[in-house]
Design goal:
It is a single chain. The chain is α/β, with parallel strands linked by helices and 802 residues long. It contains 33 helices and 15 strands. Helix 21 packs parallel to helix 25.
């Protein structure tokens, strides 16, 4: 890392530590909506987007060579309560909540929306019985810093520990209460439109930087002139408004840059850099990129515009592919060298971590080209080096590995992971390309896949938003069986009978998700639009329709999420072993023990925890059960496509941090886990129960049939950094990863961490500001996580200790 990048990183971290930030987004949107009442929703949406870009203040940061930031939209919130005021308010919130519970015993804290409400991605997760803000980045519109929220939660949990309130309820009520009090009329206008937008997708940056806004605007005008369809005409008008506003925004940045030296005392060298940045912005406001520097700046401008309108989980996708021709050309004419390219990409990498950049923004590297040739190139390696140098959580790097890739691909992956940035995850091309084809994608589209956000698999630049439904916690299905057994006296004479009951519950959950997706699709029709994102998604201009109205070239993916396979497999194995085979426990005794959270059943709990074969240790007995769970789930989800009218239903074995928040509201499980404790993470084993070493863990995972896993997959692998200090250790991990991928492992993400550092960071967070960990399919600063999530990460098995 050179001095410029070091200075830029320090400045960005300083900005991140300045405190809570508000947003002008709601105000700018509402201003426009007030002036466009009576106009079509699609046009109102486009004009509001234009107003956002025209009104937002533009900011230039010291040291940066790529410009564009969220800071003008999101200044520091000055009206933060004092600590004493926070405590008084928190206490009142919990008192009010307890009173509400007394008055309504059926109240579970969930928020109900009116019929026809188009739920945003945030609505989806912040309205449930469970809490949501398990890391600072997702506590949107917060009026207190996340560390203060954590302290308040701890204080209220201690104060009310003898009251009729669960710890998670306190967390949920406080995270909802400590929000910036925006004007209610402004928020209502924003929500009523609704302000629906592109998120969890990749916009076709590569195509756009090669076209430029001047040609795009001409193209839109041509389409508009040639159509006599009123609906298409309205779409093209909205696209034209969005394209012209985007061009204006970038051109205005050129003016902002040229004015910047007048405000700051700059060196001659910095003035020259600023002038060059201004010239580039002037050019790319109309024309296509020609140089590598222009291509990187143009890519970032398109990305920051998407963030300014509120987009989240936006992916750069295959950045080493669409930027490579510019790099190669500049290298040939000596306009750039490898170090200069690395500095530009390091700047981009750092800027993804600026304040108010939304969660889980990804890049995909390596793999193969659409026509099947090796795609790992010099820029792939430079991107990995940049990730290792800057050591920041984002962007989330997916490294595709394919048999045609050069031998250095695994070496570079381990080298980057060793740096402590938590990157990259490895994606097995042979699994994902094959499974994308099973969904009906062409070979070219399947070959071109990328990881959106965390681990979710999509086609770049051709699909609308990733659709979400209620996540399925595999262990919760067991709880439902036990309740129905107790209430309805459903019989299970054999373990096969019990598994059939389990699959019946899975069928009900999957069908519920299918119906949820169909209803959401109906709600979106005719009221949800995003003109900016749509003009950057293939098919929309050609079809004359917004991506949210069916205009995209490739269909929407509706994800059926599931996770907790370790907890579920261990629990089912315990039922099989102790109830049906050894008959050491009756169904009645197991039910009573779970219902009483093992109080009075401590000996049984000990047996379940210590004598049950555990997934993650290469034990066929329990791994076979895990395979049955996965196989039934993925086939059932794939079968939903037989009755779909175009959209795809995909199985996603990944839980973000769902294993925490679902675990907090779930009862005890037959593996000895107590009520409220976390489930196992995504496709991983129960925390700390994989005790036979990393090869056995990989063998357990390879025992599972992943032929129909189509949406995504996450397997975390925590390793002591000292293990990678020696060449022998590094080569051991390289060989392990190679063997795992060559034997069909779909995905794995290794990260290095020291157990003592993690424990000390809980006590002294100020000493460990830059400590990064893998959470689900993404990374985050450890100190920015909820304490429960921190503890769960500590409990995961650490490989490579002495």
């Amino acid at each position: 890392m050179n001095q410029r990048i070091r200075n830029l990183k320090e400045n960005i971290q300083k900005l991140n530590d300045e405190g809570v930030r508000k947003t002008y987004l709601y105000q700018y949107v509402a201003e426009s909506l007030k002036m466009t009442e009576g106009e079509p929703a699609q046009i109102r949406r486009a004009k509001a987007f234009a107003n956002v870009l025209d009104r937002v203040k533009q900011v230039v940061l010291p040291y940066e060579t790529i410009t564009g930031t969220m800071l003008g939209m999101c200044p520091v919130y000055e009206e933060v309560m004092t600590k004493e005021e926070q405590e008084i308010y928190a206490d009142q919130i919990i008192r009010n909540y307890l009173e509400k519970k007394k008055q309504n015993q059926d109240f579970d804290g969930s928020i109900q929306f009116g019929e026809g409400h188009a739920k945003s991605f945030e609505d989806e997760f912040t309205s449930k019985k469970s809490r949501w803000s398990l890391m600072s980045r997702v506590h949107h519109d917060a009026s207190v810093e996340f560390k203060d929220l954590q302290d308040l939660i701890s204080a209220m949990q201690k104060k009310y520990e003898d009251q009729d309130v669960e710890p998670y309820e306190i967390g949920r009520e406080l995270e909802r209460a400590f929000k910036i009090p925006y004007n209610s009329e402004i928020k209502k206008a924003y929500n009523d439109l609704p302000w629906f937008l592109g998120n969890h997708l990749n916009l076709n940056y590569g195509k756009m930087i090669g076209k430029g806004f001047e040609k795009l605007i001409e193209e839109i005008q041509k389409y508009k002139k040639e159509t006599d369809n009123p609906e298409k005409e309205e779409y093209y008008e909205s696209a034209l408004i969005a394209a012209e506003a985007s061009s204006r925004f970038i051109r205005r940045y050129a003016e902002t840059l040229r004015d910047y030296p007048n405000q700051c005392g700059l060196s001659i060298e910095r003035r020259a850099e600023i002038e060059e940045m201004a010239d580039i912005c002037e050019k790319i406001s109309c024309k296509s990129a020609e140089s590598f520097r222009e291509a990187v700046q143009f890519t970032w401008m398109l990305h920051i515009i998407a963030n300014l309108q509120g987009g989240s989980a936006l992916s750069f996708a295959r950045i080493d592919q669409y930027l490579y021709p510019y790099y190669q050309r500049d290298l040939e004419i000596k306009r750039v060298d490898a170090q200069e390219a690395k500095e530009l990409l390091s700047c981009l990498w750092l800027k993804v971590n600026e304040p108010k950049m939304r969660t889980v923004q990804s890049v995909t590297l390596g793999g193969i080209t659409p026509d099947g040739e090796n795609a790992a190139n010099e820029l792939t390696k430079i991107c990995l080096e940049a990730a290792g140098d800057v050591k920041m959580p984002y962007p989330n790097v997916g490294l595709r590995v394919n048999p045609v890739n050069p031998s250095w691909i695994f070496e570079e992956a381990v080298k980057t992971a060793r740096a402590g940035c938590g990157q990259p995850q490895l994606l097995n091309d042979e699994v994902w390309i094959s499974n994308m084809k099973k969904l009906g994608y062409s070979e070219a589209d399947a070959n071109d896949y990328y990881n959106m956000g965390c681990v979710e698999i999509m086609v770049p630049g051709k699909q609308p938003n990733w659709g979400v439904t209620e996540a399925i916690a595999f262990p919760v299905l067991i709880e439902r069986i036990m309740e129905k057994w107790n209430n309805d006296h459903r019989k299970a004479e054999t373990f096969d009978d019990f598994m059939n009951l389990y699959f019946e519950e899975m069928d009900l959950a999957i069908e519920g998700d299918y119906r949820e997706a169909i209803e959401k699709k109906k709600t979106m029709k005719g009221q949800c639009y995003d003109p900016y994102s749509s003009m950057l998604i293939d098919g929309c201009l050609e079809n004359g329709r917004d991506m949210l109205q069916g205009g995209s070239e490739c269909p929407m993916h509706w994800s059926i999420y599931a996770y907790g396979i370790g907890t579920a497999a261990d629990s089912l194995c315990a039922v099989k072993k102790f109830i049906f085979e050894e008959k050491r426990v009756t169904m009645e005794e197991m039910y009573d023990a779970l219902k009483n959270n093992f109080e009075g059943y401590e000996e049984l709990q000990g047996m379940l925890q210590n004598k049950t074969p555990a997934y993650g240790n290469g034990i066929a007995e329990v791994d076979t059960i895990a395979d049955k769970i996965l196989g039934y789930f993925t086939k059932s989800v794939m079968d939903l496509n037989k009755k779909s009218d175009g959209d795809k239903f995909v199985s996603t074995l990944f839980g973000y941090f769902f294993h925490i928040y679902h675990g907090e509201i779930a009862g005890a499980t037959p593996d000895g886990r107590r009520k409220g404790e976390p489930f196992s993470d995504s496709m991983g084993p129960n925390q700390g129960r994989d005790v036979k070493g990393p090869t056995r863990l990989m063998n357990s995972v390879l025992h599972l049939n992943d032929d129909l896993v189509t949406g995504g997959y996450a397997l975390n692998f925590k390793i002591n950094p000292s293990f990678l200090n020696e060449e022998k250790g590094r080569q051991s991990i390289v060989h392990l990863l190679k063997a795992y991928i060559e034997n069909g492992g779909p995905q794995v993400q290794i990260y290095t961490t020291n157990m003592d550092d993690l424990k000390d960071a809980q006590i002294h967070p100020e000493k460990h500001r830059d400590l990064i960990v893998r959470v689900g399919g993404y990374c985050e600063f450890f100190v920015n996580l909820d304490k429960v999530l921190q503890t769960e990460i500590i409990q995961r098995t650490l490989y490579g200790e002495a």
